[in-house]
Specification:
The protein is mainly alpha-helical and 500 residues long. The protein folds into two domains: 130 residues; 331 residues, Neurolysin, domain 3 (Orthogonal Bundle), CATH 1.10.1370. The chain has 21 helices and three strands. Strands 1-3-2 form a three-stranded mixed sheet, with helices on both faces. α1 packs antiparallel against α2, α5 packs antiparallel against α6 and α15 packs antiparallel against α16. The model has no long low-confidence stretch (mean pLDDT 96). Bound molecules: zinc ion. The site of zinc ion (ZN) has 4 residues, from α10 and α11.
Length: 500
């Protein structure tokens, strides 16, 4: 296994460059002064170039071929076979896109981001349209180089959700949509929930302290991670034993920091839960963005917005914020944090309407990429879909087609992973409870050890060993589906809104 060991060492070096870039990226968003931006961009470019050259170089190719020959006869379920399989997938993807296209894309997205920021601030889609045209064109080229069997969108989707096909997403979304539209309409006919208690005065230091208390209970390991403030909440990892999350505060909107912290901790628990024996290898990573999001959504929504959770944690929250919550009963608070209301902005959407925002983007992306929708017509198409799905029309493009950062970074194919993860969160949760009924009793006591152990064993420890579809099949005994999530939503929100 000499070639295999050498390959493993080389992949570790490439991984170290990636995690070093993650440190620089984290610093950029948390602490770097504005003056550091230009040199930081150069540092990223240099490290990215070195990593790319190492990844696709002749030496890596030779080691990979040698390692493949060495593991050829071994058990396909072994660590060695899994590592070589994942390394081959990464290598093939990396060599398929010509370096000039990678460079052109990097420049276009750096520039595109600046143009988008300005266009959104001025709510002027026309400023952004030529950039969108350019990025769509480059993405089509990327898709052609990567290759696909059925639809061009498959190649882009595969970058974030390996092995997933557009048709499969369409199938899952079609089921989901019919169930959701009905529920949204019934809720919309009810009197709106008053969530003003969440807009009272909440001291930031007290918010931070309560959030840390909750995520320690969840199992976030502060000896192998930390939390800092940033403009946008995110989770990043410098390795299994150093996982960073960030949060932001709004003194007059309690859910922003609290639910954001629980969400990012869901991501962090996944990263802290990879198998120790995989450290330094490409197996020590998430199966896909969808699987990653299944973890954050499970903790944020299924756990963190449940009545069971607040039965235990609400008295502590009241003690933390006596002025704001002393006279607010649990039911009022629970209903407030679960208010359903069709809204314009995806990132602020509730559990019921969120997936409609994703379906809209998925349909728009496919149409833009295959040319059946022109860039010029895109804002009208967006507004028409908003009216159709959510019954509201954006007053301007800043609150419509320009709201998300993704397209300015050419991240076409990314959006579906948010919904795939959301659906998977309910599917996994059902299976966890079926496998270990004691989890429900533990949750009622505010204990999360049983749930976390199940997730560790079934989802976290396998890392990237399996393609997401294979992981779901292995763990749940069925493919990804939407009925677990629809059942979850119907049970929770029909009770909450007093519907049949
Ligand atoms: Zn997330």
């Amino acid at each position: 296994m000499e070639q295999y060991e050498k390959l493993k060492a080389r992949l570790a070096e490439i991984g170290h460059i990636g995690t070093s870039m993650a440190v620089l990226g984290w610093d950029q968003q948390c602490y770097m002064p504005p003056g550091g931006a230009a040199e930081r961009a150069e540092q990223f470019a240099t490290l990215g170039k070195i990593a790319h050259e190492l990844s696709v170089g002749d030496e890596t190719r030779r080691l990979l071929e040698g390692a493949e020959a060495e593991v050829a006869g071994s058990d396909p379920g072994s660590d060695e076979a899994a590592l070589v399989r994942v390394a081959r997938r990464d290598f093939d993807k990396a060599v398929k896109i010509p370096t000039e296209l990678v460079t052109e894309m990097a420049k276009a997205t750096t520039l595109g981001h600046e143009i988008w920021v300005k266009a959104r601030a001025e709510s002027d889609y026309k400023q952004f349209a030529p950039t969108l045209e350019k990025l769509l064109d480059l993405s089509r080229q990327v898709a052609e180089h990567l290759g696909y069997d059925d639809q061009r969108y498959d190649a882009l989707l595969d970058q974030y959700e390996p092995g997933m096909k557009t048709r499969e997403v369409e199938r899952v979304f079609a089921d989901l949509k019919s169930g959701l539209v009905q529920l949204v309409q019934e809720i919309a006919a009810q009197p709106p929930i008053d969530d003003s208690v969440l807009r009272r005065d909440y001291d930031e230091a007290a918010q931070l302290a309560f959030g840390e208390y909750v995520i320690k209970k969840m199992g976030f390991d502060f000896t192998r991670g930390r939390q800092d403030r940033a403009v946008h909440p995110f989770c990043t990892s410098f390795g299994r034993d150093d996982v960073r999350i960030t949060t932001r505060f709004d003194r007059n909107w309690l859910p922003m920091a609290l639910m954001g912290t629980i969400h990012e901790t869901g991501h962090a628990l996944y990263e802290q839960g990879f198998d120790p024996k995989d450290v330094g290898t490409p197996l020590s990573d998430a199966a896909s963005l969808g699987v990653h999001e299944s973890q954050s959504r499970l903790w944020e929504n299924i756990i963190g917005r449940s009545r069971t959770f607040w039965n235990v944690f609400y008295p502590g929250l009241q003690r933390q914020f006596p002025d704001a919550l002393e006279n607010v009963n649990l039911n009022t608070f629970y209903r407030a944090i679960n208010k359903v209301e069709p809204s314009l902005i995806r990132v602020e959407a509730d559990e019921v309407t969120y997936n409609l925002h994703i379906m809209l983007r998925f349909e728009m992306e496919k149409a833009l990429l295959d040319g059946s929708l022109s860039v010029a017509d895109a804002p009208d198409a967006w507004n028409a879909k908003m009216q159709e799905y959510l019954g509201i029309t954006p007053p301007d493009d800043a609150q419509g087609i320009l709201q998300d950062v993704h397209w300015s970074g050419a991240s076409f194919g990314y959006f579906p992973t948010y919904s795939l993860g959301t659906l998977l969160s309910a599917q996994l949760y059902d299976k966890a409870l079926a496998d270990n009924p004691a989890i429900a009793e533990e949750l009622a006591r505010g204990e999360f050890g049983g749930l976390l152990s199940w997730l560790r064993e079934n989802v976290h420890k396998p890392g990237r060993r399996y393609l997401p579809a294979d992981l779901v099949q292995r763990v749940c005994g069925e493919p990804a589906q939407s009925h677990s999530y629809l059942k979850y939503l119907n049970t929770k929100f029909r009770t909450l809104y007093g519907l049949a």
